[in-house]
């Protein structure tokens, strides 16, 4: 389908331009060029098509016992954020002991991804795992999450969100779940707007990013998933209302109205 027009950064007050990176921010450490809609269409290999329509939400360890209500909220929000996909909450799996690094007291996230990738079936578009244990990757002391589009698997940790509940905790969990699933569908980090696909090198950056995507990333997802933007915003508003996030739900309802009037 043709690319629908979308506002430039800051042209619509709902979608401000990405603020300049401060010392210690993601873009201060990593030089990323970003990705246009045209580049995404040319490079994306993980598309919702044919029988490959399931996104698995895979708890690891004893998470299901500790965070039962959270898992249902995550499943419902991912289903609203990525309409057309069937989001399935899987039975918990034990953490792979081969990914544990005793000297660090952390799990090596790439090793967890490799194990999950071997479990994928033909109807699975992507698998997103989550755990309560701390994670790290090769050149990072810790990671909030990690995703491999090639393996179609991702994992994120709740360890560094602070506390066991509350709205701040929930927002962080939803943001990282959406962010890592976006990577699994081929989205790169967003560098032009304030967006849920912004990279985050610390918790302050996670909190600063919105729970929604920017118009550019939204257009990428529309091409991949084939949704109606107004209907999707309405679904997100319902999901956010159910999660008790009134401010974010109001934003989604406003965007639904603007999408219908286009």
Characterization of this structure:
The chain is α/β, with parallel strands linked by helices and 262 residues long. The chain contains 10 helices and 8 strands. It has helices spanning 26-29, 37-43, 63-66, 68-81, 109-117, 167-184, 203-208, 215-225, 229-243, 246-260, and strands at 54-59, 86-89, 100-101, 106-108, 124-131, 135-136, 145-148, 153-157. It has a 5-stranded mixed sheet, sandwiched between helices. Strands 3-4-6 form a 3-stranded mixed sheet. A hairpin with a 4-residue loop joins strand 7 (145-148) and strand 8. Helix 4 crosses helix 6 (167-184) and helix 4 runs antiparallel to helix 9 (229-243). The longest helix has 18 residues, at 167-184.
- What gap, in angstroms, lies between the N and C termini? 17 Å
Number of helices: 10
Tell how many strands the DSSP assignment holds.
8
The percent of residues in helical segments reads 25-40%
**Overall average residue pLDDT:** 94
């Amino acid at each position: 389908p043709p690319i629908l027009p979308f506002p430039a950064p800051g042209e619509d007050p709902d979608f401000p331009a990405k603020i300049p990176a401060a010392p210690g921010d993601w873009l201060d450490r990593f030089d990323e060029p970003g990705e246009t809609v045209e580049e995404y269409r040319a490079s994306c290999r993980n598309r919702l098509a044919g029988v490959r329509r399931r996104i698995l939400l895979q708890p690891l360890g004893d998470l299901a016992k500790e965070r039962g209500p959270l898992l249902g909220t995550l499943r419902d929000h991912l289903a609203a954020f990525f309409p057309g996909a069937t989001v399935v909450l899987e039975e918990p799996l034990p953490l792979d002991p081969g990914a544990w690094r005793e000297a660090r007291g952390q799990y090596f996230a790439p090793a967890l991804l490799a194990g999950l990738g071997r479990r994928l079936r033909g109807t699975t578009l992507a698998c997103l795992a989550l755990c309560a244990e701390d994670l790290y990757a090769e050149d990072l002391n810790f990671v909030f999450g990690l995703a491999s589009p090639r393996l179609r698997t991702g994992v994120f940790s709740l360890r560094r969100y602070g506390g066991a509940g509350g709205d701040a905790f929930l927002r962080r969990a939803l943001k990282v779940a959406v962010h890592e699933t976006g990577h699994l569908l081929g989205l790169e980090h967003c560098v032009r707007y304030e967006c849920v696909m912004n990279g985050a090198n610390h918790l302050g950056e996670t909190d600063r990013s919105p729970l929604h995507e920017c118009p550019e990333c939204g257009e990428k997802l529309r091409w991949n998933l084939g949704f109606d933007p107004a209907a999707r915003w309405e679904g997100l508003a319902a999901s956010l209302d159910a999660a008790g996030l009134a401010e974010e739900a109001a934003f989604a309802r406003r965007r639904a109205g603007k999408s219908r009037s286009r």
